[in-house]
C-alpha cells in the first residue's frame, strides 16, 4: 500500500506554530493540502488567542506572489498571524511587481472565457475548456489545464507562466505551442512559455531572469 506524502506538517513551538511545507511536491498541491488542513483537519487551531506562525519552505524558493498566496490563506482562517516565510536557500534577487498587472481570483471553468487588455494574474485554476486571452503577459498561480493566449495583438515578447502548466493549448501572438507531452519536461513545476527565434519555448520559472533581465 502506498502511503500518502505529508505535504504540510504543523508543529507547536514555544512562540506559536511552525508550518513545514514539503519542498519536493508541486506548489499547487501543497497549497491544496494547506487549505484542507486549515478548513478541515486542523480547525481547532483557529480558535482562541492570536497565534504567530512561522512557515518553513525547505529548499523551495518562492516568488513574492506565491508567498502572498500562503500568507493570505493562513491569515484568512481565524487567529493565525504569519510571522515569517523562510527558505533554506539563499535569498533570491527581489522581484518588483508590475503595478499594471490586473489580478483576479477564482476558477475559470469549461466554457468560460476571460479577456483582458494588458497583463493578467489569476489566483486560481483554469480547467479544461476554460480560456484566458490577454494582450500582455498571463500569470496563473494555480493549474493551467485549459487554453491561454498571451500577446493576442501580436506581441511576441509576452509570456505565459503557471504553477502547474499542462494546458490544452498555449498561444503567444500567432505562435502555437507543441502538446505538453512533447516538451521533454517531466515535472510541471512553475514553468513559463515564451517566444525565441519565432518558436515557443518552455522553461522553468527561475530562467525568466535570462529572458527578462530587467524585470520588464
UniProtKB/TrEMBL annotation:
Domain Septum formation inhibitor MinC C-terminal: 104-200
Gene3D superfamilies reported for this sequence: 2.160.20.70, 3.30.160.540
Keyword Cell division in annotation: yes
GO biological process: cell morphogenesis; division septum assembly; regulation of cell septum assembly
Keywords of the record: Cell cycle, Cell division, Septation
Organism superkingdom: Bacteria
Ranges of residues in domain Septum site-determining protein MinC N-terminal: 8-85
Function noted in UniProt: Cell division inhibitor that blocks the formation of polar Z ring septums. Rapidly oscillates between the poles of the cell to destabilize FtsZ filaments that have formed before they mature into polar Z rings. Prevents FtsZ polymerization.
Similarity section: Belongs to the MinC family.
HAMAP family: MinC (MF_00267)
Subunit structure: Interacts with MinD and FtsZ.
Protein name: Probable septum site-determining protein MinC
Species in which this protein is naturally found: Paenibacillus psychroresistens
Phylogenetic lineage: Bacteria, Bacillati, Bacillota, Bacilli, Bacillales
Amino acid at each position: 500500500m502506498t502511503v500518502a506524502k505529508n505535504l504540510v506538517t504543523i508543529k507547536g513551538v514555544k512562540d506559536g506554530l511552525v508550518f513545514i511545507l514539503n519542498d519536493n511536491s508541486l506548489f499547487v498541491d501543497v497549497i491544496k493540502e494547506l487549505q484542507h488542513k486549515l478548513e478541515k483537519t486542523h480547525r481547532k487551531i483557529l480558535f482562541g488567542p492570536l497565534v504567530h506562525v512561522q512557515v518553513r519552505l525547505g529548499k523551495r524558493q518562492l516568488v513574492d506572489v506565491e508567498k502572498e498566496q500562503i500568507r493570505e490563506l493562513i491569515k484568512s482562517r481565524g487567529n493565525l498571524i504569519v510571522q515569517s516565510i523562510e527558505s533554506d536557500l539563499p535569498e533570491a534577487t527581489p522581484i518588483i511587481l508590475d503595478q499594471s498587472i490586473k489580478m483576479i481570483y477564482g476558477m475559470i471553468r469549461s466554457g468560460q472565457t476571460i479577456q483582458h487588455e494588458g497583463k493578467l494574474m489569476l489566483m486560481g485554476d483554469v480547467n479544461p475548456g476554460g480560456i484566458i486571452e490577454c494582450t500582455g503577459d498571463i500569470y496563473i498561480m494555480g493549474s493551467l489545464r485549459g487554453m491561454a493566449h498571451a500577446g493576442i495583438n501580436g506581441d511576441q515578447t509576452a509570456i505565459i507562466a503557471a504553477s502547474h502548466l499542462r494546458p490544452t493549448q498555449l498561444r503567444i501572438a500567432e505562435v502555437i505551442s507543441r502538446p505538453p507531452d512533447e516538451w521533454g519536461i517531466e515535472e510541471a513545476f512553475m514553468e513559463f512559455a515564451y517566444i525565441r527565434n519565432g518558436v515557443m519555448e518552455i522553461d522553468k520559472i527561475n530562467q525568466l531572469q535570462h529572458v527578462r533581465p530587467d524585470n520588464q
